[in-house]
Amino acid sequence: MPVNFKSGGFYPHLFSYLPKNLLNQLNYLKTFFAPYSKRVYLVGGAVRDMVQKELNQRDITLKDMDIEVYGIEVKKFEKLMKELGAKGVGKSFFVYKWRESIDISLPRVESKVREGHRGFKVKVAKDEEEASIRRDFRMNALMLNIYSGELLDFWGGIEDIKNRKIRIINEKKFKEDSLRVLRGMQFSARFGYKIEKKSLEIMDKISLNDLSKERIFWEFEKMFKGSYPHYGVFALYRLHLDRKIFKTSFPSKSFLKTALELAKEKENFQKELYKFYFLYILGKNLHKPFSLFLEKLQAPKEYYKVFKFQKSLPKKRGDRFLAGLALKYPLSFWLGNYKKDVQQRAKELGIWEKRLEPIKPFHLLQEGFKGKELGEELRRRSLKFVRERFKV
Fold this sequence. Notes:
The longest helix is centred in the C-terminal third of the chain and has 19 residues, at 371-389. The chain has helices spanning 20-33, 45-54, 74-84, 128-132, 157-162, 171-175, 179-191, 197-204, 213-224, 229-238, 241-246, 252-265, 274-286, 290-297, 301-307, 319-326, 340-349, 361-366, 371-389, and strands at residues 40-43, 65-69, 87-90, 95-98, 102-105, 108-112, 120-124, 143-145, 151-152, 165-166, 194-195. The mean pLDDT is 93. It folds into 3 domains: 1-167, 2-Layer Sandwich (Beta Polymerase, domain 2), CATH 3.30.460; 178-308, cca-adding enzyme, domain 2, CATH 1.10.3090.10; 314-392, no CATH class. The N and C termini lie far apart (56 Å). It is α+β, with helices and mostly antiparallel strands.
């Protein structure tokens, strides 16, 4: 049965949720830091994920960890990191990478001094509460002592996880990093959490003009992959990201239609195409070209390749339409395939896993066609075959 969590309680059994490799590495660090400090904490997303797993909200495998070390001076910490063989990945932020999957740092306090995600002045925090206030959302500010299993929750993060809510810790600190607005959106889509009203109002007023397209896309892609994409749509709409990112205003009815469709149909999404359906359904319902979204997000080539030959999903999709589409690719590749009637009929017609090839190029070569004429004749005969054999 799930534990009735409370701040200051001891829950060492949570470490059993770590995969063996991370648990072994954590045990090594416990021995390594023991002579210097017992105020060493697992912090951030890993603790949040452990609590979610304990509450049966998510069943995931943790892949990395963030560790904060208290009670050690900067020079001593740097010496220990060198001894450990950790690599400095943000020395000005006291952050080191160890064994590829673990970040080790001193607790810090940050203050904004200029624009950009690196425009911060940093100093070592005095205590656990002071350090935790710099984090974005309450659910991400949990701390788990690696020695005792004591769980610290200064801001009500456990309550938020239980209630499936996303709430800002500190308005002033939150505003210092505009990327946090998009993090809230993708967390909502990944976890199925609602962003609390006051937090939404704060986030909505934050400009995103200082963010690079690359950083924006990373957060959007996390939303595309989320288990609750319809929550992502509501966050996108409520935060006016249509205007801020895509530079256009989308009708509220279209957003609602998209959210309902994503919620209803996500179980039918093909695993290998999952992250592409969000933009496909959004573009279809908004009657916008897919290129609009790809260009504004500066999506990687992979997205352009997938969307290049995509056709929007028509209300009436007879055999002739499906067969015509299958001349280009198997319908398992078409993003309109999330509809059950499409999947069923495509499999019956034998065009789910294979393209439709009614005319073989080899036969046309024997008739003397070649070059451009070969391609044109192949297309003409293929379309003729589809018109004659399949119903509208």
